Amino acid sequence: MFPAIAGLAWVVSWLADTRQVSSLVTGLVALGVGALGFLYTSGRLEAAEGIAIARRWPVILVVLGAGLIVQYLVQRKR
């Protein structure tokens, strides 16, 4: 639940200042992690599927990096 709560806070923070794209990206990633955690603990996500998803953690880093690049470009245009 903690990643989902933090993700929701980041998305709300982004709504306050829509130029902070990194808050949106981080919030969406955290919400995704929270959703996967919920699915795993509720039994709707099998252990093998959870491990397969966990192996793709570099994708999370790429998404965060892309969000930071977009953030830089948005702030630069100001």
Explained architecture:
There is one protein chain. The protein has helices at residues 2-16, 21-41, 47-54, 57-76. The protein has 78 residues and is mostly helical. The chain has one domain (2-76). It starts with a helix and ends with a helix. The model has no long low-confidence stretch (mean pLDDT 87).
Topology:
Elements: H1 2-16, H2 21-41, H3 47-54, H4 57-76
For this entry, give a set of tags.
single chain, elongated, 78 residues, mainly alpha
Radius of gyration: 14 Å
pLDDT averaged residue by residue? 87
Structural class: mainly alpha
Count the strands? Answer: 0
Summarize this entry quickly.
This protein is mainly α.
